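re: the backbone from monday

yeah here it is again, tokenized this time
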């Protein structure tokens, strides 16, 4: 599975955007679970691409970062300690732990101190995108509803499976020929391209296994890349 090249949207200040995203995650409530699952996306296959997890908390503890390479062995990508008065820590470049021929991968940040907030930051040639990554209790599920409006210059859905293999089913509104199905393996990431005629559709994506724990990211190219994690409905 190979991601097509897209350009990242430029931001004026990485730190300000990161703090804003962390503030949003904290303001909307910190779940008791302290695992955060995300997807790093190989948009250019360039050695200059970087991806970092940033994790913050107001309590002390240790954050463990993990990368699940395509077709490879899960790897601990380092640890970092949040001090007694709280703070923020940043991982090493997560792409350096991914498969060299396909750097798209599931990634995880686990915090042993309690509640935490996380942001996944990807950058290439000075341009970057940031996505707030909710804790497991909020961010993972088996069913997701996507209101697909204008898809700009292109759009796709990234699905990461944190559990056992299952089957994905996509249902669309309107005069559609029928649902689509595809398999996804354990700890695998798949890409589902959204063709232009799917614009202005309501999309229901769900696993046939209701115990599945998926993370879903919608990516839209509007001249810059916009990414958002879709919160599950089930």
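seq for it, each position gets an aa:
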């Amino acid at each position: 599975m190979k991601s097509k090249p897209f350009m990242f949207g430029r931001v004026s200040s990485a730190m300000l955007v990161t703090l804003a995203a962390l503030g949003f995650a904290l303001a909307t409530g910190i779940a008791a679970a302290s695992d955060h699952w995300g997807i790093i996306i190989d948009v250019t296959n360039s050695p200059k691409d970087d991806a970092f997890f940033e994790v913050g908390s107001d309590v002390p503890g240790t954050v463990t970062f993990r990368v699940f390479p395509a077709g490879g062995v899960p790897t601990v990508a380092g640890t970092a300690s949040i001090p007694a008065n709280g703070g923020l820590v940043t991982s090493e470049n997560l792409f350096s732990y991914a498969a060299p021929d396909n750097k798209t991968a599931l990634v995880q940040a686990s915090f042993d101190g309690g509640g935490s907030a996380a942001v996944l930051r990807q950058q290439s040639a000075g341009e970057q995108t940031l996505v707030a990554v909710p804790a497991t209790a909020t961010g993972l599920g088996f069913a997701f509803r996507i209101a697909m409006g204008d898809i700009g210059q292109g759009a796709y859905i990234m699905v990461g499976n944190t559990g056992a293999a299952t089957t994905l089913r996509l249902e669309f509104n309107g005069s559609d020929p029928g649902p689509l199905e595809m398999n996804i393996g354990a700890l695998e990431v798949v890409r589902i391209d959204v063709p232009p005629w799917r614009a202005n559709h309501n999309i229901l994506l769900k696993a046939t296994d209701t115990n599945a724990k998926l993370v879903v990211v919608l990516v839209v190219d509007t001249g810059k890349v916009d990414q958002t994690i879709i919160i599950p409905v089930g």
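Confidence is low (pLDDT under 50) at residues 1-33. The first helix runs from residue 14 to 27.
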